[in-house]
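JOB MANIFEST
job_type = single_chain_structure
chain_count = 1
residues = 133
[input]
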Amino acid sequence: MAVACIGHINLRASETMIERLRAFYREVVGLREGPRPHFRSGSRGYWLYAGDRDVMHLTIDPHDADVAPPRDTAFNHIAFACRGLSDTLLRLREAGIDFVVDQVDALQQVQLFLTDPAGTAVELTFTAEPLPV
């Protein structure tokens, strides 16, 4: 077996939190909502796409409770390779979203770090796009 790439990330939370996450990842990160097949399990949720790939699955917890991460492991952050640094900076500022900027000169990257409504750290990485003055 050879792994080609990560297929998707699945976030599971209460229905209320899923709606907040859905809005955040669509409006702030720029993912678009797309088709989600019916599952025999009856699970409900949304699939969010980057281009033609479903990269984030938002699943409503059937018990409608926010789920604590495992005690021994947890995600540190989710990173997205992005384009459109200037527009993104403007959109984040207009939305009043707090973020931290880091430049990694060796990689020609600008990284923006922010937090989604559930408290998950999100990294937006822009390669070969200089930080506007």
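[summary]
The chain has two domains: 8-67, 76-133.
The radius of gyration is 16 Å.
exit_status = 0
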